[in-house]
């Protein structure tokens, strides 16, 4: 996967790396498309297979399902609220820990 471009934004007194949602969406689409090509099935079919026990939950399949889930969540947010930037997960959790202390 290509490295995502980010910019640092000051949130309170901390700089937080922020990735544009368009870039993140494209990276997720590319990753999911690659898994679908490798496994020769759509993501929804794999999800149903895992739920029914017909498909094994390997680390690679779980990474695929995580990307698929994030794509669905982020895609629905950008469709309803317009394009926006999102903070990376690692920086968001670190910032929330610092503000709680």
What does this structure look like?
The chain has helices at residues 21-39, 43-52, 59-81, 89-100; strands spanning 6-11, 14-20, 85-87. The protein is α+β, with helices and mostly antiparallel strands and 101 residues long. The chain has one domain (6-100). It has a three-stranded antiparallel beta sheet with strand order 1-2-3. It starts with 5 loop residues before the first strand and ends with a helix.
Helix content: 55-70%
Query: In total, how many domains does the architecture comprise?
Result: 1
Gyration radius, in Å: 16 Å
Q: Strand-residue fraction?
A: 15-25%
- Beginning-to-end CA distance, first to last residue: 35 Å
Structural class: alpha+beta
What does the average pLDDT come to? 76
DSSP helical segment count: 4
Number of strands: 3
Order of helices and strands: EEHHHEH
Oligomer: single chain
Q: What are the segments in which pLDDT stays under 50 over at least 5 consecutive residues? A: 80-101
Q: What does the overall shape look like?
A: elongated
The biggest sheet amounts to: 3 strands, antiparallel
User: Which strand order spans the largest sheet, edge to edge or round the barrel?
Assistant: 1-2-3
Layout of strands and helices, then pairs:
Blueprint: E1 6-11, E2 14-20, H1 21-39, H2 43-52, H3 59-81, E3 85-87, H4 89-100
Antiparallel strand pairs: 1-2, 2-3
Helix pairs in contact: 1-3
């Amino acid at each position: 996967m290509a490295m995502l471009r980010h910019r640092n934004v000051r949130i309170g007194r901390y700089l937080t790396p922020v990735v544009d949602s368009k870039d993140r969406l494209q990276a997720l689409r590319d990753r999911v498309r690659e898994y679908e090509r490798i496994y020769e099935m759509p993501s929804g079919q794999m999800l149903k297979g895992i739920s029914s026990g017909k498909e094994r939950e390997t680390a690679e399949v779980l990474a695929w399902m995580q990307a698929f889930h994030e794509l669905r969540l982020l895609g629905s947010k950008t469709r309803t609220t317009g394009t926006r930037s999102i903070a990376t997960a690692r920086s968001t959790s670190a910032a929330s820990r610092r503000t709680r202390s």
